[in-house]
Amino acid sequence: MPDSALSVFMAGRNMARLMEGLWITVWISLASVGLSVVLGIPAGLLMSSKKKIVSGILRIYLEVIRVMPILVLLFLFYYSLSKVSGINLSAYFVSVLVFTLWGTAEMADLVRAAVTSIPVHQRESARALGLSELRANLLVIVPQAVRRLLPGVINLTTRMIKTTPFVFFINHPDLMKVGQQIVEVAGMRNHLASVWVYGFIFLVYFLICWPISLLSRWLEGRWKS
Amino acid sequence: MRDKFVLVLALFAAFAIFSAGTLRAAGELDAIKKRGTLRVAVFSDKPPFGFVNENGDNEGYDVLLAKKVAEDLLGDPSKVEFVLVEAASRIEVLQAGKADIVFANFTVTDERAKQVDFALPYMKVALGVVSPEKAPITDVAQLSGKTLIVNKGTTADFYFTENHPEVKLLKYDQNTEAFNALRDGRGVGLAHDNTLLFAWARENPGFVTGIDFLGSLDAIAPAVKKDNGELLDWLNAEIETLTAAGFFQKDYEATLLPVYGDTVDPKTVLLTPEELKK
To answer: What is the value of ipTM here, to two decimals?
Structure first.
C-alpha cells in the first residue's frame, strides 16, 4: 500500500512532529487570544471614554494595525527591527506580540461598539446613584456589554487561530509548516501524501474551532433565558 | 516636568538603539566561537538539498556541508543550529542577524550580491522547465502567452520577468504549493533550477524536464552578511580546501546520487578545483 495514509503518519516520528507543530499553533493562539482579551477590554473602555486625546490615540492605533497585513507586522518585528536596532526577538515572541497587537486592536473596537450600544441612561442612572465612573463601568456597563460582545469575540478568536500559519514566514515551524515538510519528503514515494496530510490539518483546525462556536452558541442560549 | 521625562526617555532609547547597532560590528568569527554554535540557514522542504526527514532531523546536500563547516570551525559537526528558511527570506535572515551563513541552494546573482556577500561556489546550476509528458514544453517559444509557474524571488522568477515578458507568471512562495499547482494544471510548466527538476521529474512519473538548460550557468554559493570580511575569508579558504579534498563528491554520492540516479553526470553539478579558481 504505497499511497496509504498510514504509511505517511506512521513513518518515523511524523505523527509526533505534527503534534509538536500543533502545540506551537495552539500555544501562540492561546497566549495571544488571552492577552488580547485582557488588554482589549480596558483599551475598549478607554476608546469609548469622552477624553478626546485618549480615544483619539487608540483610534489611530486601531486603524494602523487594521490596515497592516499581519505578514508585514511579522516581518517588521522579526527582521526589520533587528536590522535597524540589533534587538533580536525570538520567532515565538514576535508571533505572540504581533497577534496580540492585532487582537487587542480588534478586541478594543468590539468592546467600544458593545459599550456604546448600551443606552446612555444606564450609565447616567448609575452615576446618579453615586457610583464612581469605574464602578459604573464594572458593575453596570460591562456585564450588559459582555453579552453583545460574545459573537464578535468568538469570530475574532477563530480568525486568529486560522491566521497562525503565517508564523512560518518568520521561521517558526507550526502545524502547517511541519505538514509541508512531511509532504515534501513522503510525497516522493506516496502521491497521496498531500491529500492525507492537508486533510489531517483541516480536521485538526476544525476540531479546534468548532467547539469554540458550540460554546458561544450555548452561552448565548443560556443568557437569553 | 513630564516633557523632561519624555525627553530623557527618548534620548535613552536613541542611545540604546545606537549602541546596539555598533556593538554588532565586532569580529563575527570570534562571536561564533564564543557562542559555540554556528547558525546556518537551510531549507526545510527542498529535498535533496535541505529537508527534514521523518524523524525530524535536517538532511540533504546543504545540511551535510553545514555540518562539515561546523566541524572545521568549532571542532564538532553537531555544533550547528539550523534556521529553517523560505526562499524569499534568505537575504532577510542574514541582514537581520538571525543566521551566520546561508546554505540554501542560493544562486549567485548581481542583484543579491548587492545585499549579501557570496563566498566561493560549491555547486553550479542552470534553469530548467518541467512539464507534463502529454504536453511537453521543449522550447521557450512554446510558453508565449501561456502561464508558467515559478517561485517568488528565485532565479527563475527574475529570468522570465527580465527576458520573457510575454510569458505569464504564476508565482508561489513555496515549493510545495508551486509543484502542487503544476499537478493541478494551473500552468503549462514550472521553471526552477534544473538540479531540483531532475530529482522531481524522476520521482513524479508523467512529468519531464523538457527544457534542461536555460539562461546562463549560475553558481550556488554560501552567503554571509555584507561587510563580514572575516567570516567570508574563512569560508572561501574552507570551500577551496573541501573542493580539493573531494568532499563535495562524497556529499553528492551521499545525498544527490540516490535522488538523481545515474542519469545525471555529477560533473554538471559539481565544480572542479580548476573551475573554482575562475
So the answer is: 0.75
